[in-house]
Structure formats: structure tokens, C-alpha cells
Amino acid sequence: MKQFNIKRFGRLLRWYLCENQRNLTAWTVGLTVAFTLIHAFFTWALGYSEVKEFGESMRPTLMATNVCLFAITVIILYIASSIFTTLKTKQQRIAFFTLPASELEHYLVAAIYVLIVWPLCVNLAFLLGDVLRASLFMLMGYEWDLGINLSKQVYNTFGSRGAFFPWFLSLFVVAGTWLRRHSFAVGMLITVVLSFFLSKAHRFFCPPDASEAVREGWTWFWNLFYLAFTIFNFRLSYRLYKRFQIITSKYTNV
């Protein structure tokens, strides 16, 4: 089967989600509890000493939100680097490769699972944890603030950077497709090195004292640059997947 079929793809996606439903639900519940405890810790530790003295009612919530959003980013990157972690054994590979679907459908199902489904569940856990903590503190008669409003500022910051984060994420997908072991560590190393050199290039071509027109022009250039390499990385990841073998080395998938 080489041609893409939307109905077959939909059935395969439903099957993949059902197969991983228990694991996904368990992690969502666990992360909800973890985010609730993080929010409760900062609110309880800082909310009733410094807040009463200085009146900074949002400070504990802001600190907790920053910690949670950092954890969300790390989790999403780790999941992206684990795109094919369910295909480590010979039996798992045979079962997945023999499913009645094309290679592209197989790859897209795995990609959607780690790039869309998992991030949605992680953010849902953050939302539930934040609301649960605020509700409990409200019932106990304490001051409470929702971190959801504060998190919008962080997401707006990511959005203002255009295609940077998708490119960042695509590097972890490539590492997860290529490597069987230590894909997250290798992906982090690659992104740190590339980010360092790209930041140097960005400051060289667009120094802090550059005019607004120059800054805007280079912003468009870098967005197109990141977008092009994001497409390249996902295409590379798919080509690596097409070279998967039933029996591979200990460290790589091809």
C-alpha cells in the first residue's frame, strides 16, 4: 500500500490511540496531580508570608506557572524524541509494519500522537491542575489566582518567535527517529549547539543597534529559515523511518 487513504488513515489513528489510551490517561492524571502539587507548594510556601507583607498576590502563582511551563516544554520535547519508542523489539516492529496502511500513514499516526495528542494532554493536565488547586484554596477561604492567565504571556512569547519552536521540536523528532537509545540527550545536545551558533549569527547580522526596518527584515528571514529546516527535518525523519528494519543495531533504527 503506497497511496495515502484518508479513511484507512483514520482507522489506523483510532486504533493507535486506543492501544495507547491507558498509558496516555495514566500520565495525564499523574501530571494533573503533579501540577496541582507544584501550584499548591508555591502558593502555600509564599502566598501567606510574602504576599501579606508586600501584597504581591500574583507572585506565587507566577513562580508556579513558570515551573509548570518549563516542565511542559521538557515533557513535550522528550515525547517528541520518543516518537518510535514503542518499536524497540522485533515483535513490536513486525506488528506495526504489517498493519494495513502505507508507510506515510504509519509515520503520520506516530507523529500526530507525539506532536498533537500528547501536547494537548499535557496542557490539559496543567489546566486541570491549576483549576483544581485554585478551587481547593478557594474552598478553604484562602486567596487564589489562576495561572492560566499568566501562561498566556509565555505562549504569546513563543508565538512571537515564529517558527523557532517547531524547528526546535523537529530536531528531537529526527533524533527519536534515528536513535533507539539516548535520543532525548542527543537531541538536546544538537539543539544547544545549533542554537548557540545561530544566536551568534543572529547577533552578527542583526546587532542590537540595528534599525527597526533591519530587525523586521531579519525576523522574516529567520522565520523562513526555521520553517524551511523544519520541513527538511520532518522529511528527513520520514525518510529515516522508511529505512527501518526488523532487526537493527542497539543504538539506531536504520
| Intertermini distance | 21 Å
Rounded to an integer in angstroms, the radius of gyration calculated over CA atoms is 22 Å
Q: Give the mean pLDDT.
A: 83
Give the proportion of residues in helices.
over 70%
- How many distinct beta strands? 0
Q: What fraction of residues sit in β-strands?
A: under 5%
Largest sheet: none
Q: What is the succession of H and E elements?
A: HHHHHHHHHH
Q: Helix segment count?
A: 10
Low-confidence stretches: 49-55
C-alpha geometry: globular
- Helix/strand-derived category reads mainly alpha
How does this model look, in words?
With 254 residues, the protein is mostly helical. 76% of the residues lie in helices and 0% in strands. The chain is built from 10 helices and no strands. It has helices at 6-19, 21-46, 50-54, 59-80, 90-97, 103-139, 148-160, 164-178, 183-205, 212-242. Helix 4 packs across helix 7 and helix 8 (164-178) packs antiparallel against helix 9 (183-205). It is globular.
Question: What descriptive keywords fit this protein?
Answer:
single chain, 0% strand, 76% helix, 254 residues, mainly alpha
